[in-house]
Amino acid sequence: MIADFDYQFFIEVLVGGLLSGVMYSLVAIGFVLIYKTSGVLNFAQGALLLFAALTFVSLVERGIPFALALVVTFAIMVAIGIAIERTVLRPLTNKPPITLFMATLGLSYIIEGAAQLIWGTQVHGLDLGIEDVPLEIGGVLISQFDIFAAVVAAGMVLLLSLFFRYTRIGLSFRAVADDQFAALAVGLRLPLIWATVWAAAGLVALVAGLLWGARLGVQFSLSLVVLKALPVLVLGGFDSILGAIVGGLLIGASEKLAEVYIGDYFGGGIESWFAYVVALVFLLIRPSGLFGQKLVERI
Amino acid sequence: MTAISSDFSSAPVLPKWTAPVLLLAFAYGVVPLIGSSYLFEAILLPFLALSLAGVGLNILTGYAGQVSLGSAAFMAAGAFAAYNFNLRVEGLPLIGSIVLAGLVAAAIGIVFGLPSLRLKGFYLAVSTLAAQFFVQWALTKFSWFSNDSASGVIDAPRLSIAGYALDGAVGRYLFALTIVAVLTFLAYRLVSSQTGRNFIAIRDNETAARIIGIPVLKTKLLAFAISSFIIGVAGVIWAFAYLRTVEPDGFDLDRSFQILFIIIIGGLASIRGAFFGAALIVVFPLALSRLGGFLLGDLFDSGVLDMSQRIVLGALIILFLILEPDGLVALWDRIRRRLLFAWRST
Description:
The complex is a heterodimer of chains A (299) and B (346). Chain A has 299 residues and is mainly alpha-helical. Chain A has a domain at 20-222. Helices cover 72% and strands 3% of the residues of chain A. In chain A, strands 1-2 form a two-stranded antiparallel ribbon. Chain A is globular. Chain A starts with 6 loop residues before the first helix and ends in a 14-residue tail after the last helix. The two termini of chain B are 18 Å apart. Chain B has a single domain, classed as Orthogonal Bundle (ABC transporter involved in vitamin B12 uptake, BtuC), CATH 1.10.3470. Chain B is built from 15 helices and four strands. With 346 residues, chain B is an all-alpha fold. The interface between A and B is large, with 49 and 42 residues.
């Protein structure tokens, strides 16, 4: 049995898993941005992703050029982010985090409903102009689209870390993440910062929405990718971008390997819950997660 | 001074149980006589099932402070367990299968409550999703649970208690009402007992609770067990009395959110709150579809209805969290106090 172990196949599955993990990380990063700066677990991130992808596709289908549609969608996402900060988060300042979480749950219902009420419920195809032809690298077949997604994700993470490191507003993000009261005391404008964070999360949602939309087709189920991102967050810690990346890779790889090698023993279809079990088992052994701060809400 | 003394003397002091007893007498004595079958099928039966699920979740989330997003999984576990006990155990009365089903749901609740010993807040909320997905997967995957029926949809058995068949909408309503009344009474007793106070202590400050000698781990698991028992029985009512079929699809994540919404809108840590919340959740889609049809006519098709329901529901959640964090119960109490005051001062 061990002798005929097919290494090539194993590596193919592993790489495929890692690359789909990148897609999970893309969604998870949107959560981390908001959690880091405002302590809100934003369940509406999936709905935002759906809204962005649906808006973009509908604009393109109405004959608006690709680049312009991208800019318009981004502007809409920024507007939504600011509106959320004004109408939902501001009145709920200083409420327990779990209340804010429930508010974002309500928010996700509103955004999902609005997205489909405005743009309709049919499935849209989305073509980003990247052919999904497998590339052969060192004898291993890898999807070209997956590589593109990985490059985009890497670019975005790089951009975000430069932003956090070198720009004034990025630095104030970190200050707010560190200590809200101290940030207020030195005169940082929290509402402005939160609005910017939500806009940044909107940008991440747009990028992730386009990539996922090209993969699955733009439709309601797109907002369910949030359920794929949650175990990644539990594993990596809610407040670490690095954790979101590594967690995504781990979940992606273990999910694919489990599906291929042990899925048959369970009768298949285990990917709906396997990621959660991985995250839970991991947490029971190491409650502070991979990269999460020790202070987070764990016993 | 005079105002206060007159307030004391003229106020008729009614015992606390007056309102519930009057309400129950009305529900048993009057409603079956005047209700139409639409009232039972479309409003009262789902209302009773969801209220009970809300009571169950409220014990876990409202009183013990452990947020769960997996309630529908426990409803499904209860429904399928009751179906299988009823099918496979010869001569077991219906009540027996329902109690056993509750116990099965409680056992599953304890297993999925284990992470609560090490996780809090969001981490726990996310980990309860594991229950949601696992149970739903297991029920669709293994056809043994649905007695190898090809479609996965199975007819619920006939309801009967001690030989009396409870057919028809009224019979099923009385069946559901009785179970809900009994379990709600027990839940009410529970939350005012020492155990209930322990739940609240853990919710408010876990470290302090540990210091005054509350066995935190045991109490948390107990909260999971009791809550899952009640939610499991609610699942039985949902499947046996309301839908008359047992299928896993009805117990999806949206149902879990719906039950969470019920207790947010109704009022956290309030037994009455679950009933207020469930009433709103059940009646509001019906009212919205009537209103939409009336205002927009044919433009208001089922797709638009579905979407506008989501939007209004989401908006309601946010409005309640901002304006009335204690839910409909607080609103109701305030209105009642105003009315009483206005009535007395005349």
